Amino acid sequence: MPIVKLRLLATLIGLIIYFGPIAPTNAQLPQRCQEIIMQVMSSDGYLTRDMHNEFWDSLEQALPSQADISVFEQYFSENILYAQDYQLELFTSAQLSLKAGEVLTTNRFEKLAKGSNKAGQEDIAAEFLESAAYGSVISRPDGRTLVVIQEVVDSTLPSIASSFARLKRLGTKTWDAS
C-alpha cells in the first residue's frame, strides 16, 4: 500500500480512536463527509471553499434539523483540541514503541486516555501501539489493513497541527478563508 494511503489510514484511525461516531446525535456521517475529512486530515491535505460547502451540504441533508446541526458544530468545536492532543500523543507513543520494540506511552497520553470515556477507544489505541511495537497487522472493518511503520509515524507527526487546523475550519459552518 502506498505511503500516502497508509498515512491517510493511520490518520483516520487516530480520528476514529478519539471521535468514534463524530456526531453526538448517533447519526453516521455521510460517506462524502467522511471522504472530505480524510482529505483534510491527510499530511498533504487541503481544504477549499468548495469542499467546505460540499461537506456542510451533505451534513445538512443527513441531519434532520438545525438543532442537530448546531449540536454537531458545538460538539466538534469543544472536542477538536482534545482530539488533536490525543492524536499527537498517540503517534508520539507509537514512535516510542517502534524504537523500543515494546508498547510505550507518554505520560500525557496516559492522562488523556484516562480522561476519555469513549467506548472501545482503549482497544483501538492498544491495537495501534501493538502494531508499532511488534509489527502486527491492524485489520479494519472495511477490509483494509495497516501495519504502523516508522515512515508513517515520522511523516504524520509533523502534520498533525496543520491537519487539525484544517479540520477546525471544516467543522465550522461559516467558511473561514484563513
Account of the 3D structure:
The protein is mainly alpha-helical. The protein has one domain. Helix content is 66%, strand content 2%. It contains eight helices and two strands. A two-stranded antiparallel sheet has the order 1-2. The chain is elongated and about 50 Å long. Residues 1-9 and 17-27 have low confidence and may be disordered.
Mean pLDDT: 81
Can you count the beta strands?
2
Number of DSSP helical runs: 8
Radius of gyration: 16 Å
Strand and helix order: HHHHHHEEHH
Q: Determine the strand fraction and express it as a percent band.
A: under 5%
Low-confidence stretches: 1-9, 17-27
Summing up helix and strand content along with how strands pair, one would put the structural category as mainly alpha
Overall 3D form:
elongated
First-last Cα distance: 33 Å
Number of domains: 1
Largest sheet, if any? Answer: 2 strands, antiparallel
* Major sheet: arrangement of strands: 1-2
In short:
The protein is 66% helix and 2% strand. It has eight helices and two strands. The N and C termini lie far apart (33 Å).
Features of this protein?
mainly alpha, 2 strands, 178 residues, 66% helix
